[in-house]
């Protein structure tokens, strides 16, 4: 059993803590503030009638489980005093402010709140996440007075208040730095008037207002969002995209229009950044709701004579346009945390030119989360799982000894139900032959699991469920059946393989062939590269386009044109690559509407509406390469159909459920990695591969799966074998017992969602957790 410490208890820190504790290790979670959760506590759900996949609900659940986990010790209001690194461990000395609560024994009775004479204890509740915040500056103990009333009134003796501070010392095999970020101080952007002009606010402030009330003010008021405040700006040393700002601006704008369709909403932007596989559909719904998108950032905001906010916008011809809005929301970027320098000195951390942590000079110090680079909630959780695997490997704490995983369960599971143990096969099946599959295989082999890695077309038959899948596989001309405990789907991509847009047009993958065709041609040669042809593309294809464009531009006589709707640079280094491409001479054309391709003599003429000129331009290209990733993929996904994995709107594996992102599927024990479930940036693919390996290890290292027999129960006397339950179950938890002549549910797969019971026309199914008699009793009571 290993011992680990985590500095920073935001979503990254809590995710890593849960993964390590779930592997049977002891974790100490340190937080400088008085509550666990970090920046996530400031965020609110942004759903309308549909989930917007912001990830807040998932993060809140993770944080709650971290607080409750018996192997995780949380220390809030902690201040590091000294760190002494050794070859195999690190020694810590810190102080903790009192009063302090032990959440392992706290029952959240609130008696401490009523006992506090200064009213400095506040209960914070977000769903299942409950904790108490202390305002230490108001506490009598910290004002030099004797007081311990909160501790005296606690019936569980969960509160320590004997002294002002408690000094603590302990050792850890490895430490994770997850200290988070600091939002850009909008007051530094003086021309926007934040803090000086009423009704100019940050996105976080707007989010907090909308979590309490239905609008930012009067629903008739005109609202403007301004993007890239404190990011993508080399003049202030922040020449990087903060990654998350477009996502939260679009989600907030969508909420405002959903609640009050009459509210005028405008978003001023440079480039709207793609944030996940649902982006294209979400952006279309935002536009359809009436939100206006205006490319261009105002350079000044002041007050008009009518009391409105005047936004000054410079046009390309040098003329100035003035528009008025009632409220302005500034989308501020992420920067390094305020205490980054002190933390860097404690742990030998190196920092990049922007102040984010990169790595440590110490082998057992790791970094994750937004202290490393701007990340969304789901990206932070993925990176954290990948780091957890690295921490286990570094400290030699990975083993395959049989044990019972200590993963948090559902509170409903406290009921008394019979339990069953199911043996788990130890071999893992990985389907794919690209970088994602190879990385998964490497990580699993490092964890000492036997792995069968085959190309997806060699999977001939597939059956079974979590822990016991069976597959018939073709290898080297032979066909054999094997059993597997888990399956990782990692084919390279799910894209349009063939498309015909006319002569002299091919895909990015065929760019070398296109260039070879022009090798003997004399005179200047122009090459067009096209993105976003059918859907908004991500930073992955943008990076590929940058690489190709720069390669072309560096060759004599060649001119590269890059056509795109927006430049996707939502990764720390992509903004600088964008600058390099432009400085190399690549002509980047941001277009509106649709592109048209007109065959010309020995080439193609591309026509589009230029976003700057707002008029149609035409560019002759000798050859054109189109990004294939966001062209419509084939409607039938054979591998998904074979394995029973749900697909999304674009027929890619894994549906759009935020609770499944980034690697889980509707089928327990089957994971997806890489471009098969959406176009992915290479660093994300590597993180996903490691996260999938860790999830497989968390499952199979138990050797047997203990499940509670609270799954759906099907009455064989009522079952008419209509197969409605079989078709409606999203998790494939129903099978047909032909000997009994009735359907049955599998306890290791059933999620107790109740869909089968609700859909059964014969009323033959009920859930032991929610039996029919209880539901009927509640109906009568209402």
Description of the molecule:
The chain has about 775 residues and is an alpha/beta fold. The chain has six domains: about 5-100 and about 170-180 and about 335-395, 3-Layer(bba) Sandwich (FAD/NAD(P)-binding domain), CATH 3.50.50; about 105-165, Alpha-Beta Plaits (2-Layer Sandwich); about 180-335, FAD/NAD(P)-binding domain (3-Layer(bba) Sandwich), CATH 3.50.50; about 410-495 and about 635-705, FAD/NAD(P)-binding domain, CATH 3.50.50.60; about 505-625, FAD/NAD(P)-binding domain (3-Layer(bba) Sandwich), CATH 3.50.50; about 710-780, 2-Layer Sandwich (Alpha-Beta Plaits), CATH 3.30.70. The strands form 14 sheets. Strands 32-38-33-34-35-36-37 form a seven-stranded mixed β-sheet. A five-stranded parallel β-sheet has the order 3-2-1-11-24. The protein has a five-stranded parallel β-sheet with strand order 13-20-14-15-16.
Tell me the CATH topology of the largest domain.
FAD/NAD(P)-binding domain
- Point out poorly predicted stretches: 403-414
Enumerate the strands of the largest sheet in spatial order, edge to edge or round the barrel.
32-38-33-34-35-36-37
Q: Helix/strand-derived class?
A: alpha/beta
Helical proportion, percent range:
10-25%
Number of strands: 44
Whole-number count of domains: 6
What number is the mean pLDDT? 92
- Characterize the largest beta sheet: strand count, sense, and whether it forms a barrel: 7 strands, mixed
Classified in CATH, the superfamily of the largest domain is FAD/NAD(P)-binding domain
* Basic shape: globular
Strand content: 25-35%
The gyration radius over C-alpha positions equals 28 Å
Number of helices: 18
Distance between the termini: 52 Å
Which CATH class of the largest domain? Alpha Beta
| CATH architecture assignment name of the largest domain | 3-Layer(bba) Sandwich
